[in-house]
Amino acid sequence: MNFTPHPLLPHAHLMTVFPRFWPRGDLLRGIPTEARLFTVAPQTQLLGYCHWQRDPKQQGTAVLLHGLEGCSESHYMHGIARKAWLAGFNVIRLNQRNCGGTEHLTPTLYHSGLSQDIRAVVAELSAHDGLGAIWAAGYSMGGNLVLKMAGEVQSESPALRGVLAVCPNIDPAECVSALERPTNWAYQRYFLKRMKARLQRKAALFPGKFDCSRLARIRTLREFDEVYTAPDGGYKSADDYYDQAGARHVLAAIQVPTVIITAQDDPFIPYHMFECTAIKTNHWIRLWAPSHGGHCGFVQRPRSDEDLYWAENRLVELLVNASDPGQVRA
Q: 281: domain range?
């Protein structure tokens, strides 16, 4: 599927940051919304916003997962939710642990390896709600999580019909190294500032659990993960965390229709990660890799039949086509 970038956004960095600042209006106005808590581990709940069709059991369901320091209110979560709901799907905009103002719902931090959380949500929607056709879609870190989940469950989750991932960080070590390049300092600074603020909120909610005395001296995401993320997640070190959390280890095991969309010019999701044998040989996986698009940007040249957000439109198009599995499977 061809992507033609917007002529005013020729650079990957412009393509990456533009959507964050371009107003999109109240995309979910008039669409029914129900808040729901999903228990995914002891003392841990995720907050999701559900947009149900009139007869949910008769419709497909899309579970959406945001990226690092995003939340259910991220613009692309609203954009996909609106388009998928109007196309006839139930939609759940899911917050990862601590995101979207939910720090109080878990004593833990969130990280790229928590694929069991999305697995638990899919299982609950299937067993409790009777939903038999569920697709999981994730952006960036969320993309890694849905891919990792699919590889781990293999064929053990009949309700999981497919996975869609946009710019997933399937090898976190490579992505963190890319963020450490001088040209990417602004991204690292943005993520790190928000993660530090989140840790301070967590420390106030759970006194004695987190030692913030080293926080001011931390200058990189790698240092933050070494001191806080890895120990809290049960990993030996940041390197151990990066290695174990990547979906790259289980891509070969995926047994549901899967589409990965990534840009070859993504500033901090190196394209060479997707040239691996697992992606090339697993017939369940399709890779769409336009030359341009930045990180989760994919702002296309204006056209009369759809809006500027090419990746969102392709995801919903894939969901619609998935009523015939042969159209999604490679």
A: 12-171+246-327
pLDDT digits (tens, 9 = 90+) for 242-264: 999 999 999 999 999 999 999 99
Compute the distance between CA of residue 45 and CA of residue 36 in angstroms, rounded to an integer: 10
Both structure tokens of 66: 């945001």
Give the tens place of pLDDT for each residue, 259-288.
Answer: 999 999 999 999 999 999 999 999 999 999
Query: Is 3 inside any structural domain?
Result: no
Q: Is 297 helix (H, G, I), strand (E, B) or coil?
A: coil
Q: Whole-angstrom Cα distance, residue 258 to residue 161?
A: 9
For 103-130, b/e burial (b = at least 16 CB within 10 A) is bebbbbbbbbbbbebbbbbbbebbeebe
Residue 69 falls within a domain, yes or no? yes
For the domain that residue 16 is a member of, what is the CATH number? 3.40.50.1820
pTM: 0.96
pLDDT in tens, 160-179: 999 999 999 999 999 999 99
